[in-house]
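QA checklist item 7 of 12: single-chain prediction sanity check.
[x] sequence parsed
[x] length recorded as 291
[x] structure emitted
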Amino acid sequence: MDIKTLKYFQKVYECRSLHTASKALYISPQGLGKIIHRLEEEVGSTLFLRSPSGLVPTESGEILYRRSREITGQLERMMEEIEYVDTVSKRLRLGFATGVLRVISVTLIANFIKAHKELSGDWIESGNDTVINQVAAGKLDYGFVIGKPENPELETKLLFHQPLAIYVPKGHPLEYKEAVTFSDLQGEPFLTMNEHYHIFDMVQEGCRAAGFEPDIRARVVEGQTLITLVEAGQGVAFLPQFLEGLPESVCAVSFDPDVTWDIWGIQRADSEDQELFEKLERYIVRHLSVR
C-alpha cells in the first residue's frame, strides 16, 4: 500500500464512481478499477458495493478513508514544512557584543537580510565574552565582537577600526599632550562604560599593565553620559573617537595609536555558511567605509 494508491482510493470514495474519479485522476476506469481491486486484496476486505446510484463504501471502506485521510494529511504538512525550511528561509542566529550596535546599526543588518529573501534573523546583544563563547559552541552562527578573539575554532574578519581618545575638561594638563598612554593616567579619576562593555576590560588591563589599578569613579551605559560627567569635572573618560557635538568645555586627546577599538566578525572555522558570511562582511565594510 502506497500513498498514491490511497489517493486514488480517496478520490473514488469522494466521487462514488470509477468513471468520474478516473477523469479527475487522468487514468482509465479499467486501470483505476484494477488499483481498487488490488487494494481490497491487500487489506483483505471489500471496500465498495455497487448500487444503482453508484459505489457505496462498506464499513471497511469508511474506516480506510477516515484513517488514510489522517495519514496523507500529515504527510502533506510534513512536506510543506520541509519545503519551507529548505527553500524559503534560513534563520541566522546573530550575536552583537554590547556597544557594537553603536556602529553597525540594526538597519544595516536588516537591509542585508531583506536583500536576501531566503534569510531571516535571530538577534541577541550580550557581553563580548558571551558572544565569543556562544559562536564557538555553535549556539550562534555569527558574532560581532570588540577585539580579535584568540580562538583556533573561529574564523575572524576585521570590520571596523577606530582610534581611542581620552576626553578631559578644557585646561586639563593632558589636553596639551600629543598622545596619552595608560602610564599618563595614573592617579586620574576614571569614567568608563560598565562591565558589559569590552572597553571596561581594556581600561582595567591597560592600567594594570602600566603598574597601577584604575581609580574608576563611574560606570555607565551611554558614552554621552561620560561626556556630561567630564564636563562636570568628575574625571576623564576613555572612549572611541566617534562622539560628535562635544561641549566647548570638553576636548578629545589622542590615545596611544597601538591601542584601538576594533569590531571583528567571527564564525566557526567549520561553518557551512562561510560564503554567505563573506558576503555579509563585504557588505558591512563597504557601507561603513562611506559613512
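[x] summary fact logged: The first strand starts at residue 48 and ends at 51.
[ ] second reviewer sign-off
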